[in-house]
Amino acid sequence: MSRTGPAPSTTAERAAIVGSGLAALAAYATLRRGGIASEEIVVFGTHCDPTEQWRQQAAAIRQQRMRSESDGHLAPADFPGLALRVAWRRRSVRPLLQTVSRGYHPRVDDFLVHAAAVRERSGFDASFRRRRITRVAAVDAGFELDGEGPFAHVFLATGHPGLAVPGALAGDPRVVHAYEPHEYASCVAIIGAGMAAATEWRNALAAGSEVVSVRRREPVRQPLNVPRPLFTRRGLAAYHRAPREERAATLRRLSTPSFPPDPEFDAVIAAAAAEGRYRVTAELNGAEQVIAATGFRRGFRHDELLAGLVERHRLEVHDGWLVLEGDSTVPALTDERRTLSIGGIAGQWAFPAADTIAGAKYAARRFLERVCRSR
User: How far apart are CA 285 and CA 289, in angstroms?
Assistant: First the structure.
């Protein structure tokens, strides 16, 4: 049973995770596999099911498959990957064959089955405490979280700070965000050019709608969220060595919308354009429905907890990014006795693809190293 109300930390609770999404589950599973007992960890969050928000957003855009590949799983060990896990469960070699050409992309339902298994095996629920943390304060013995603690080691995985909708469309009754439940009108304007937008173009066309793609930038066609080298040790080391402005420029480039190359998808769009059912424009028209496939608000300043942390402790920022060490820790608040790590989208300064499963595990593994080092 998860705890649902405030409770004082015990001397056994050395590590705290703030957040209850996929990054929090990845961090928790990593700590458990590293030998940290469930009694030593507390997870503060608003959702006892770590997949809840992600699952609802995936359902809203009718997502069938993940953009990630076989290694995009939540288990702390790299092996076995999702392809092997699914091949074993389904008694089929097809997922394994698809990995040869990097053509395996997990089905959403397979990923959710896997996430549920990680949640159960790790004992996540035993450490979960339903509470929204709004303040992190550094103290001599570590960190207090809304008065609870102190905890020597804290992993912040607060997720995306809300859905982004263009300000000019606020209050427009035609507008729905792509990640909110919706159907499709006969004429739909879809704002955006990334993965969610591309998925919505296809969904609306399949529903018989006329689609107007509203975008001012052309999308980059690439398999993963960021170029593959940034997932490698060599590529990441080069990124870490770069001067700050160069790193910021890299992160700005990575904000360009993108989605994977797919000849079948391209054929669907081309056929719809030939029929007069799909067109691209830079400005919004009088469409019956407007779907904002515009992702999430950008920047830590939209996150109450992180914004307060930066202001209270005068943490270093650069061009809107929270400056972190290469191991995802906050340098001014991390030393031999205590650790403050950032997982998820706010950790991009350390790992450009921080909002991916790989990014969550990158931060979690380095957090584990620091927790174990202080024993």
Answer: 10
Q: Tell me the per-residue pLDDT of 235-294, one tens digit each, with 9 for 90 and over.
A: 999 999 999 999 999 999 999 999 999 999 999 999 999 999 999 999 998 899 999 999
This prediction has a pTM of 0.93
Q: Tell me the per-residue pLDDT of 88-113, one tens digit each, with 9 for 90 and over.
A: 999 999 999 999 989 999 999 999 99
| 305 vs 4, more confident | 305
Alpha helices in the chain (DSSP H): 22-33, 52-60, 82-90, 94-100, 108-122, 124-127, 195-206, 233-241, 244-254, 263-274, 304-313, 357-373
Task: Kindly write down the DSSP assignment for every residue of 247-297, as one continuous string.
Answer: HHHHHHHHTS-EE---HHHHHHHHHHHHTTSEEEESS----SEEEE---B-
Give the strand pairing for 187-191 and 289-292.
parallel
Q: List the domains of the chain with CATH numbers.
A: 15-162+298-373 (3.50.50.60), 167-219+257-292 (3.50.50.60)
